[in-house]
Amino acid sequence: RAHSRGQHEVDALLGALVTQERPGDAIILTQPQHSLMLSDRYRGRLPAYGLPPDSASWLERLSQQHPRLWLLQSDDGGTQSREEQWLAEWGYQMHHQGCAGWRLSLYARPTASLTPAVCGQSFAGGITLAEAAILVQEDMLFARLRWQATVTPVRDYKVFVHAFDDQGQLI
C-alpha cells in the first residue's frame, strides 16, 4: 500500500496529534477515503470516523460520546467545511495546524458553564466589550467575549486574547 511507505505530507500533523491526544478523544475524517491513509500512518490510540455525506447526524452522535474531537481534512483552499462550521457552533477550537495541503483542528466543549462578567469597556468606533466569560478546565482555557456596537462598524476588527501565568509571564 502506497500510504504505508516513506514520508507522507500528513506525518507532521499526526505526530502532533499523538502528543496531544487524550483518552476519550476521537478523530473525524471529512473524506472516508482517507481512512486507509490514517490506518497506515497514525500511531495513536484514538478511534477514527470517516464521515458520510450526511455528516450532521454523525457529528451530533460523536459529540455526545467524545468531549474532544479532532478534525483531519485535506485543505481545499482555506474554505471552511460544513464539519468545521458544525464543530465551531458545538464547541471551541482549541488547536489548529496546517501542513502540506492538510488541516488538523481540535474542538472541545467545556464540561461546566462559563460564568459571564459584565465589562462595559468601551473602545473606539462605538464598540463595547459587554461581557467576558473565562473557564480553565484541565490544560484548556475557554473564553467567550460578547461585543456590542452602537453604530455599524466601518471596518472589520480582529480580536485576540493574551493569557498570563501566576508570575505575570505571557503563556
Range of helix content:
10-25%
Please tally the helical runs, counting DSSP H or I stretches of 4 or more residues. 4
Number of strand segments: 8
Radius of gyration: 19 Å
Strand order of the largest sheet: 2-1-3-5-4
- Which structural class should the secondary elements be placed in? alpha/beta
Largest β sheet strand count, sense and barrel closure: 5 strands, mixed
Average pLDDT score? 90
How large a portion of the residues is in β-strands, by DSSP E?
25-35%
Roughly how many Å apart are the termini? 43 Å
Approximate shape: globular
Task: Please trace the helix and strand order, writing H or E for each element.
Answer: HEHEHEHEEEEE
- Regions with little confidence, pLDDT below 50 for 5+ residues: none
Give an overview of the whole structure.
- It is a single chain.
- This protein is an alpha/beta fold and 171 residues long.
- It is built from 4 helices and 8 strands, in the order αβαβαβαβββββ.
- It has helices at 11-20, 35-41, 55-65, 82-90, and strands spanning 26-29, 48-50, 68-74, 92-99, 102-108, 116-123, 127-137, 140-149.
- Strands 2-1-3-5-4 form a 5-stranded mixed sheet, with helices on both faces. The chain has a 3-stranded antiparallel sheet with strand order 6-7-8, with no helix packed on it.
- Strand 7 and strand 8 (140-149) form a beta hairpin.
- Helix 3 (55-65) runs parallel beside helix 4 (82-90).
- The longest helix is centred in the middle third of the chain and has 11 residues, at 55-65.
- It is globular.
- The termini are far apart.
- The mean pLDDT is 90.
